[in-house]
Amino acid sequence: MSDAFRRGERRPIRILGASGQLGYGIPTPALEAGLRRQPDFIGCDMGSTDIGPYYLGSGNMAVSREGAKRDLAKVLKAARAIDAPLIIGSAGSAGAAPHLAQTADIVREIAAEAGLHFKLATIAADVDRARIIAALRAGQVRAMDGMSELTQEAVAGSSHLVAQMGLEMIQGALLAEADVVIAGRACDTGIFAALPILLGFPQGLSIHLAKIVECASLCCVPGGRDSILATLHDDHFELESMNPARAATPASVAAHSLYEQADPFSIHEPCGRVDLSDVVYSAVDGRRTRVSGARFEPAAAQAIKLEGARLAGERAILLCANADPRFIERREAIFDSLETLVAELACEDCPKDYRLFVHAYGTNAVMPANPPMALPGEIGIVIECVAPTTDRALDVLRTAKQYLLHYGYEGRLSTAGNLAFPFTPPEIGVGPAYEFSVYHLMEVDAQSDIFAISIEDV
Amino acid sequence: MRLDALAIAIRSKNAGPCLLTLDIVFPDDAAFALAASRIDRLLEHVAGQYRKPPSRIRSFVHPPSRAIKITIPRDRLSGSVGDTDVYGAQQHAPLLGFEL
Fold it and tell me: How do the domains of chain A map onto residue ranges?
């Protein structure tokens, strides 16, 4: 295809967004409908920071290995059947080395079982810590969205530290003639904009298209996970869900630029910004929308987004409930004295080494409200403790449990116990807790200095 | 009229780990124009309900989707210890009863 384009034989290209969350299931009818349209390549996004810091921190995938294998098998077999490139971004949910290794391992296993042979590119997104510290000293790192300034401790203390690679790295893998590209943490737009830009399509249009199709049919009414087909021309693109029950309408496609974005008029890439102020969305028919008008503004200096997570401790939780209006009315004073008393008992011989949070569901536990909500007849209580070890977290929670169970608050009538336990033991260790430690921009000269492409014959 | 009687979507979600973004989508141009004309009062309401200084609140009127978007800092980074809503998907309720 690229040879033909180089000879000047240009034509619109067809792009299949197979899945926006690989591993959670890909509806087969829409995927097959998409394949019948002979797409020029297939892309899938597999990750995000919106699921919190745990997956990046731990190196675990958010999906099961079985779920990932089922979906990877579908798209891999599909792409090989039509001999189209397959591009997967943010491998294994967070795109760090263990996620990339697990995803590539599954792909090799599927290939061996199905007798498939192809050229596989994997692109690591982990960033060398010494390079970040050097950039920090040189004043080339800046905080994103109100984060505090980056410190050497935050860099050193992150269990995984990646950067979102831009489309240039995926282009590098395609230029190395990879049939299948598995990128570690990547800008979701890179998956879908890399090849179009390589073929000479406008950057603004290609990146705007990419930002929409990376979520499959989420931009439709009703939104859903079915594959979506985009047809890219030199001055516009058209979107069509591969499920006939979903319609890409001008309003639904435009509304997608709101989704999980701070600013609906801008898309930021390492290489620049796409301005969506003058984009026009128009209906082709009841189910298809035409989009044009995105403008690309190159950045003066390339900057990549660093993402890191660190271990916060081991988490344990206590699950219980209360159904006494007298307790519920006084809950704030009760929980305040709980924290003080637990600290006195649990830290008699040592400094406070844990964090304790009471989530009293039914009483503005999800968010504060002004005025506060009316009190319910019963409340669910989750007490969360993060401590250096699971045993320590459980020990603190057992102290909290006994105190709450028997606390003689003013006006108490239920003197046998304040808590209902749905089962015992009600305190459960739930494993390591992670927190985001790095979310910063780092200036780079060339992305190939940071990210490494490996090519292998499978 | 209450906002939830006029809008077809009122929702919240993370925009990265540090920010929460609120989207209010309207069914037609008239409803969108009415709400957009009240945006100053809406932003005051958001500042009060979410306890954010006006300088930390960004807002966008987005005609192609007939939507108003308001982006505010999260109280805690997504998923940090003590967070109450990792995805930020249930922080929209204070918008529902806003009187236009």
Answer: 3-306+438-457, 324-419
Place of tokens 């971004």: A89
Beta bridge partners of A435: A310
- φ, ψ (nearest 5 deg) of residue A397: -70, -35
Contact at 8 Å (CB) between A291 and A208?
yes
Asked if A362 and A371 count as a contact pair (C-beta separation under 8 A), the reply is no
Q: Give B-chain residues touching A355 at CB under 8 angstroms.
A: 81-82
CB contact under 8 A, B79 and A355: no
Residue A312 is nearest to which of B16, B19, B81, comparing CB atoms?
B81
Three-state DSSP at A402 gives helix
Per-residue pLDDT reduced to its tens digit, A185-243: 999 999 999 999 999 999 999 999 999 999 999 999 999 999 999 999 999 999 999 99
Closest-CA residue to A364 (of A377, A373, A351, A376) = A373
B34 at the A interface (CB within 8 A)?
A: no
Q: Which chain B residues contact residue A260 at CB under 8 A?
A: 13-15, 21
Looking at the complex, report in whole angstroms how far the Cα of residue A246 sits from the nearest Cα belonging to chain B.
Answer: 18
* ipTM attached to this prediction: 0.93
